[in-house]
Amino acid sequence: MFIEELERSKTLFGAVCVLVFLVCQTIYRARPNKPSTGDVKSAASISLGTSVERDFVERLSESKKRCICFYSSQTGTARRFAGSLARELKDRCQIPSMLANVADYDFVHLDRLSKDSIVAFVIATYGDGEPTDSGREFYDFLNDTDVRFSMGGQSLPNLRYMIFGCGNSSYEHFNKAAHDIDQRLQELGAIRTGTLGLGDDDHSLEEDYIEWKDATCDVVVASHPVPVENVSLDTLDFRIVIPPDEPPVTFHGELSWGKTGTEEVHEPFPAPVIRSIELFEDPSDRSCVHTELDIGESGMSYQPGDHVGIWPCNPDLEVERMLLILGFGVGNKRHTILDIEALDPTLADVPFPTPTTLIAIFRHYLDISSIPSRQLVAKLAHHAPSESAAAHLRRLGSDRTAFNSDVVIPCMRLAEILMCAAGDDLSLAPSPCTVTTWPKVSIETLISMIPRLQPRYYSISSSPRLYPNHVHITSVVVREAAGRSIFDTRTRYMYGLGTNFLLQIKHALGKEMCLSVEDALPSPRYDLEGPRSKYLNNGVYSIPMQIRHSTFRLPQNPRIPVIMIGPGTGVAPFRGFVQDRVAMANSTRAAGRSLENWAEMHLFYGCRKSDEDFLYKNEWPGYAEALEGRFHMHCAFSREAPLKPDGGRVYVQDLLWMERKEISRLILEQNAFIYVCGDAKSMSKAVELVLTQMLAEARGGSAEIEGRKELKVLKDRRRLLLDVWA
């Protein structure tokens, strides 16, 4: 029976195969000779290993959009600008647009765009002229000399694009990623709309973007005029609903879902703070906090040179002011639960978990501590509670010079701007009696235009070899006098959000009074306990944190010399480097081997005074002893003797020049690695200049020719690595 059933099955299977073959032949012969877009897409997806989900041309077609605004962002700024551009193209130019991360799509499909489509790129340059983490794949694909697109060609004659770069002129390779992408697209035959925008964060990135955006949209409107009555100035991205019943899950500031503007964020680990101490001798003048976090149960790992990102919340004062301005400062209104829905998810998605509460939005999710954009100030003029307040905001929103002098220089936050516009006194404690309500301001508008609160990143100052399961942070507390405002005649201070958050953690652990430098006024206070008291357990505070991996790496071979240059907190990663070598040395000796063939490590460090702000002063001699004299520390104390012969202060670049013969020998003869960490605006440039001069001298040539050539070789071979900030 089984054999007979098997034979019948074979016969039936054969008949079915013949039938399927005949049907396929009929369908194939009925197809037109010219393949459809869908057919090409499928073929490209199969042959090039792409998927329909990563086909942005298909996504544009499905969503009935003509423009896609791509962003490549490291801190969220490029994403915010791309979102603003997409809205402007939709509202002002009447071009349906969508927002997208370059990491989410495959760019083999660029050749399938129609001539009436537009692609916009907002591209950040990160580090030493590098594309961002999310933009690396796109950058490498486009710059492949043998690049091929889905139709098999190597050109993009139908592509119309616009591009804006986010960079900082303090760095040598200013806006390199945007420059390279623009040049490559033109080489491939694409046509740019408007100019290449180059935003400079060292001056006014926001203003550079606004100027470029307005000019580029003018070009678009000129080629496709839009009737004035069709232009929309105040469309919303979100709809807010107050649930009739309490939802089963409500977010009170948890970071378990959402996007930071750079990548999908999994819940940061709440790392217990096991130690927090002051490193400066007199913290009443300046403060530097050393913080140790326990990551033993996080599953995270790191290497010396990586960064730790901490997630602070907004200070209590700014949260209270914003809630009062919106009319939610009394009773339980601030705990109102809101369910937020994106009206067009392709244009703007909800940037934080929902449903959530009003107070969570302004304490944990929106960045109300930074200087707001001029675009937001101009938009809020339409929602002012009085004509005088509206006139005040219109002036700031339309006059770049006035905005710079009255908002940027005095570091005015959004709530302060609105209070000043309404005539409120900033010196008074916020209450319903001292803060004017702005009933016309919608929460939807604020969610659309205020960026998401971002993590603050710091170089890790420890080695996991010496401190297993611990991460150390070395942070100078930012609290600097800002310019005076014509609306607030008191001396104003600018407080760094992350560093003052860490400072208050230190105060809380030591039960210290949290005072600032000016007239003993309270410095910013934060809700350290977190949502549902998640970050306080049995008297131990935790900080939500994550690790960002870096290419700032020690050579694995200890026989390669290492030269480190890091004044101030620029010494942080080098403390980790030296600790790593110490741990290796301990293991080597424990195995019965010697350090005889190990190379030297040189650290060039600088601070003001040896008895004032010399970071980890008592640790370095122990490290030198553990490395058996192979670690050498060169210290420049800029405000104590000895000074230069001309009376000038001594800095790390001066020490480097003094040691030029030995350092040049290590670089040219022993292939030493050089690391620079710290200020990008002056220190790193001065160090590179000295390196150029000393290497030229060692080669017997000029700095302009031989010196620059040697420096280029070091960078190309990744033997000169920078971790600098503006």
Question: Which structural traits does this protein have?
Answer:
disordered N terminus, 726 residues, steroid metabolism, steroid biosynthesis, alpha/beta, Rossmann fold, 7-stranded antiparallel β-sheet, 21 helices
Could you explain the architecture of this structure?
It is built from 21 helices and 24 strands. The strands form five sheets. Strands 1, 2, 3, 4, 5, 6 and 7 form a seven-stranded mixed beta sheet that branches. Strands 9, 10, 11, 14, 15, 18 and 19 form a seven-stranded antiparallel beta sheet that branches. Strands 22-21-20-23-24 form a five-stranded parallel beta sheet, sandwiched between helices. α11 (387-398) crosses α12 (400-408). The protein has 726 residues and is an alpha/beta fold. Among the domains are: 2-31; 50-230, Rossmann fold (3-Layer(aba) Sandwich); 562-725, Nucleotide-binding domain of ferredoxin-NADP reductase (FNR) module (Rossmann fold). Pfam families: FAD_binding_1, Flavodoxin_1, NAD_binding_1. Keywords: Endoplasmic reticulum, FAD, Flavoprotein, FMN, Lipid biosynthesis, Lipid metabolism, Membrane, NADP, Oxidoreductase, Steroid biosynthesis, Steroid metabolism, Sterol biosynthesis, Sterol metabolism, Transmembrane, Transmembrane helix. InterPro entries: CysJ-like_FAD-binding, FAD-bd_FR_type, Flavdoxin-like, Flavodoxin/NO_synth, Flavoprot_Pyr_Nucl_cyt_Rdtase, Flavoprotein-like_sf, FNR_nucleotide-bd, NADPH_Cyt_P450_Rdtase_alpha.
